[in-house]
Amino acid sequence: MTTVLVVEDGLTDMEILSGYLQQAGYYVVCAKSSEEALDKIGSSKPDLIFLDVILPGKSGYEICRELKNDPNTSKIPVVFCSTKNTDVDKIWGNMLGAQAYLSKPINKEELVVTLQQLVKP
Prior knowledge:
There is one protein chain. By secondary structure, the protein is α/β, with parallel strands linked by helices. Helix content is 45%, strand content 19%. It has helices at residues 11-23, 34-44, 60-69, 87-95, 108-118; strands at 3-7, 27-31, 48-51, 78-82, 100-103. The protein has a 5-stranded parallel β-sheet, with helices on both faces. α4 links the parallel β4 (78-82) and β5. It is globular, with a radius of gyration of 13 Å. The termini are close together. The model has no long low-confidence stretch (mean pLDDT 93).
């Protein structure tokens, strides 16, 4: 089963995103901070990471940069999910190596299409 890590400090957004992913047939692991995310990446070896931009500790941008610079994690697709949804935010996410950028509130259909492009359940 495909494992997806959801890094989100907002409980409601985490529950919504996790629910959509589980309904689509994915195994979901959650983290609420950058530190917890880095621990879970090491232990659960996710196939895809949904990453909020604004987090306690390091930002999602900083985490993405670290992941993409590490040969052990550089191939894991990263999708930003954030309320920061200006064109500049999306360009910045793309420059850091993210494969997609979804704006909150998350649209279930957009989420499913993005997942289908990046991984197979």
